[in-house]
Amino acid sequence: MLNRGSVILRPKKPFIDWVSNLYGSEIAPTSDGEKVIYLIPKYGSDLEAMDMLSKSFDTIFRLELAGWHTVEKDWPQSRTFKMFQDWFHLELHSCLEDICGYELTDDGFE
Predict the structure, then answer these.
(1) Maximum Cα–Cα distance for the chain, whole Å?
(2) For 37-58, what is each residue's pLDDT tens digit?
(3) pLDDT digit string (tens) for 58-95?
(4) Percent of the chain clearing pLDDT 70 (strictly above)
(5) What DSSP assignment string belongs to the chain?
(6) What b/e readout covers 78-97, taking b as 16+ CB neighbours within 10 angstroms?
(7) pTM of the entire structure?
(8) Are 10 and 88 in contact (CB under 8 A)?
């Protein structure tokens, strides 16, 4: 078991509308489409995980925005944790098992 938790974001209407306004509704994300799983520090309760996310949400928010549109001036500029929760349904998972049998590496996008 990995010493991490995870969060999966499912877009809500405000995020879908933001993408639709940029590119049209025919390519906008859906709540049941492919999602990125974000590894977060291991946590003991959902309340603890939400507290951690309240301090680091903008990193994830920025990754989600950049996944659809890389021009930062077009992103919402006053991002708050409440906005993050309004734009995404957060699905928390406290247990992660690695069954691959080889080293976990970061392929990164940098």
Answers:
(1) 44
(2) 999 999 999 999 999 999 999 9
(3) 999 999 999 999 999 999 999 999 999 999 999 999 99
(4) 98
(5) --SEEEEEEEE-HHHHHHHHHHH-GGG---TTS--PEEEEE--SSHHHHHHHHHHHHHHHHHHHHHHH---GGGS-SS--HHHHHHHEEEEEE------S-S--------
(6) eeeeebbeebbebebeeeee
(7) 0.89
(8) yes
Burial of 18 (0-12, 13-18, 19+ CB in 10 A): buried
Locate 22 and state its tokens. 């940029």
At position 101, the amino acid (one-letter code) is G
Structure tokens given for 13: 């209407």
